[in-house]
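Action item from last meeting closed. Structure (570 res):
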């Protein structure tokens, strides 16, 4: 059978219709205008995607599909890329066309281990019953105020040791902004007390970069974010890398139980900035990026003020300094995930090698540091390694900033000798246990650091002292449990946190955390299955989240078998 002839005009019309059809999402002109006004004259560079998403979230309380499409158009990115990044971070409320926007006000209640012990679940229930439909109540992971548990955040205003009445009062009063500290040391006060003199000596040639590196190599000052890599060695490695070199400072302390960085950045930000400037001069770095968790709005503002003071009053030729805002992803505390986030991407850890010291931010050799590590640089150089190292205890050297929360009389940041035991820390610095509470156990290094029983109260708390017990000190986040707490429940809380915060990149972590929670939540632990899961997660996860997540599980099995109805393991 012969084929019918096609009318040439019809063919042309069909082609024209195909040519004229717009593929993908149509840009809403009103949304585009709003986005353009929010961005103003700021760069549309791709690494600023998360910063620009924050602007929209802050202005509108959510990210609509129309605004995401408009932002993609304005930044010349694929809409899918913008959506993938926005949906990765917990602090962005992505609203599809068919979704209803959230209420204008959100009250976030921390439900991590210290806050759960202090009654966060009851607080959530009370708030859901009393605040009404115009306020959204959310359970959220650690907000970095574990010493004030339980904590609620009204907008950005924190209610410490929160009660339902106190939170409702804040809502009714319209308290939604976090107040700035009134005792932070400003540039003038810091300078008058000898601040920036060491940096000026370095600029003037009175002290060399070699001398500073040698001094750091001669002390026990190590990376205080948790990794514990010696500072002097890291600086020497970076200085030997080809230029240009960059610096990325990690203030995304999301480990449940940790809040020391917040304390130092609110009280003495210029001491940190001087340490950072010394590092940039010694190593040869001309750009610094400071990554701060979104839960710390006052820290962000305080550091912005300190940098502005430095630029206005110092007269120094400063490196380029940018402050970048996280968006609620614990995984960005991992150095390579943080770098991905600074680049405007999802915060997913990189495979290594290469290491960030070789191929880091924007593909350049990068000095990655925790802020507290830089905070101590001035003191170590001016006072000498002997001063720093002499303060240790029980055969250890140096000092540690312990973030202590839980069942003690004086929770908070305690600067104590490295190698102090938990017994000494509680008695000498924390005012003992709360009345009516007996010491039962403790996390020596936050949720991922494992759990030890009260019987092991004489272990020196420092790097390299806890591994044989299946634990580590990490960032020295100590959560103290009493006889009114359950190690089993604390472990479950930790695994819920890790399941929530897993980036999902690797199967052992993504599936392992979720499976562990489902087993643990039954109350009847399948020990064999949990041990198998733990082995796979430790051996096969890409980064430290999945590798360390099983530590609370294994600790309970080993040290708290009575809670599981099994015999104690040796």
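Sequence:
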């Amino acid at each position: 059978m012969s084929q019918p002839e096609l009318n040439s005009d019809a063919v042309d019309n069909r082609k024209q219709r195909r040519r004229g059809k717009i593929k993908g999402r149509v840009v809403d002109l009103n949304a585009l205008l709003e986005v353009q006004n929010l961005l103003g004259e700021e760069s549309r560079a791709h690494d600023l995607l998360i910063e620009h998403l924050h602007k929209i979230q802050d202005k509108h309380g959510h990210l609509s599909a129309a605004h995401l499409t408009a932002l993609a158009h304005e930044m010349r990115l694929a809409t899918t890329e913008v959506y993938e990044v926005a949906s990765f971070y917990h602090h962005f409320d992505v609203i599809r066309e068919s979704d209803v926007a959230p209420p204008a006000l959100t009250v976030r209640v921390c439900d991590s281990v210290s806050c759960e012990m202090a009654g966060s679940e009851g607080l959530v229930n009370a708030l859901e019953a009393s605040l009404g439909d115009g306020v959204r109540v959310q359970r959220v992971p650690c907000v970095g105020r574990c010493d004030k548990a339980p904590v609620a955040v009204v907008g950005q205003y924190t209610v410490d040791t929160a009660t339902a009445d106190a939170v409702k009062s804040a809502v009714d009063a319209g308290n939604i902004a976090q107040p700035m500290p009134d005792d932070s040391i400003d540039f003038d006060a810091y300078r008058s007390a000898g601040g920036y003199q060491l940096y000026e000596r370095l600029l003037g040639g009175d002290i060399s970069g070699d001398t500073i590196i040698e001094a750091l190599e001669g002390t026990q000052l190590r990376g205080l974010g948790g990794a514990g890599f010696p500072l002097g060695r890291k600086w020497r490695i970076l200085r030997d890398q080809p230029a240009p070199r960059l610096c990325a400072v990690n203030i995304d302390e999301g480990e449940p139980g940790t809040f020391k960085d917040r304390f130092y950045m609110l009280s003495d930000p210029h001491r940190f900035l001087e340490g950072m400037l010394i590092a940039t001069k010694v190593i040869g770095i001309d750009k610094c990026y400071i990554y701060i968790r979104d839960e710390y709005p006052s820290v962000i503002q305080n550091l912005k003020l300190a940098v502005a003071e430095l630029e206005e009053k110092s007269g120094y030729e400063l490196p380029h300094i940018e402050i970048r805002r996280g968006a609620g992803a614990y995984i960005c505390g991992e150095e390579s995930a943080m770098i991905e986030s600074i680049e405007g991407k999802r915060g997913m850890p990189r495979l290594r090698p290469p290491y960030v010291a070789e191929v880091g931010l924007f593909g350049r050799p990068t000095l990655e540091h925790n802020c507290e590590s830089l905070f101590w640089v001035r003191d170590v150089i001016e006072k000498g390694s002997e001063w720093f190292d002499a303060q240790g205890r029980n055969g250890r050297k140096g000092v540690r900033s312990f973030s202590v929360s839980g069942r003690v009389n004086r929770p908070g940041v305690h600067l104590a000798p490295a190698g102090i035991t938990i017994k000494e820390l509680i008695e000498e610095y924390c005012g003992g246990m709360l009345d009516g509470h007996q010491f039962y156990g403790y996390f020596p290094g936050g949720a991922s650091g494992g759990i030890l029983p009260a019987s092991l109260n004489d272990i020196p708390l420092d790097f390299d002292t806890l591994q044989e017990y299946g634990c580590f000190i990490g960032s020295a986040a100590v959560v103290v449990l009493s006889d009114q707490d359950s190690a089993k429940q604390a472990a479950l809380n930790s695994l819920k946190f890790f399941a929530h915060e897993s980036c999902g990149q690797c199967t052992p972590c993504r599936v392992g955390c979720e499976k562990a929670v489902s087993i643990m939540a039954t109350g009847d632990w399948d020990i064999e299955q949990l041990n198998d899961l733990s082995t796979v997660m430790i051996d096969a996860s890409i980064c430290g989240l999945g590798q360390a997540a099983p530590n609370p599980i294994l600790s309970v099995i080993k040290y708290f078998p009575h809670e599981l109805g099994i015999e104690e393991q040796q």
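Note appended to the action item: The CA atoms of residues 126 and 349 lie 38 Å apart.
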